[in-house]
């Protein structure tokens, strides 16, 4: 999944995410000229940057209770996501059962990470 859904403590970002996924809002944005959309995108990126600078790290990262609720909702014990840009394997227990959360690194023009499974063994590979 996209890890931003797990950052539930960042209320301002979650509110923007709901708005940005609304088809009517998207239609309104796409009806504007490209030059105006580019300026708006820069403005939103600047606001996001300034917002993130003011936030505590724990607000900007995933909420563990949201992770557990997601695993329970989908009846699974392994979650794979990116977006949070803090790659690691997190192991913890949900209802006395081992659970894992794989966070894959952000992709860039030089490399990225994928999670491979070979005969039930998982490994993170850099490509």
Question: What can you see in these coordinates?
Answer:
The protein is an alpha+beta fold and 127 residues long. The protein folds into 2 domains: 3-59, no CATH class; 76-126, no CATH class. It has helices at residues 11-20, 23-30, 34-54, 57-60, 64-73, and strands at residues 78-81, 88-94, 97-103, 113-118, 121-126. The strands form 2 sheets. Strands 1-3-2 form a 3-stranded mixed sheet, covered by helices on one side. A two-stranded antiparallel sheet has the order 4-5. The radius of gyration is 17 Å and the shape is globular. The relative contact order is 0.14.
Please indicate the count of domains: 2
If you compute it from the alpha carbons, what radius of gyration comes out, rounded to the nearest whole angstrom? Answer: 17 Å
Strand order, biggest sheet?
Answer: 1-3-2
Low-confidence stretches: none
Distance between the ends: 20 Å
Global outline: globular
Helix-strand category:
alpha+beta
Q: Total number of β-strand segments?
A: 5
User: DSSP strand (E) fraction?
Assistant: 15-25%
Order of helices and strands: HHHHHEEEEE
**Largest sheet entry:** 3 strands, mixed
Mean pLDDT metric? 90
Number of helices: 5
Give the assembly state of these chains. single chain
């Amino acid at each position: 999944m996209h890890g931003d859904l797990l950052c539930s403590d960042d209320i301002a970002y979650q509110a923007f995410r709901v708005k940005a996924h609304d088809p009517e809002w998207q239609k309104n944005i796409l009806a504007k000229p490209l030059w105006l959309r580019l300026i708006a995108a820069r403005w939103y990126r600047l606001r996001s940057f300034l917002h993130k600078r003011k936030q505590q790290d724990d607000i900007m990262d995933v909420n563990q209770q949201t992770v557990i609720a997601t695993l329970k909702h989908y009846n699974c014990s392994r979650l794979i996501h990116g977006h949070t840009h803090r790659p690691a394997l997190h192991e913890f227990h949900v209802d006395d059962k081992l659970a894992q959360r794989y966070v894959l690194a952000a992709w860039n023009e030089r490399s990225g990470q994928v999670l491979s499974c070979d005969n039930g063994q998982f490994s993170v590979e850099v490509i």
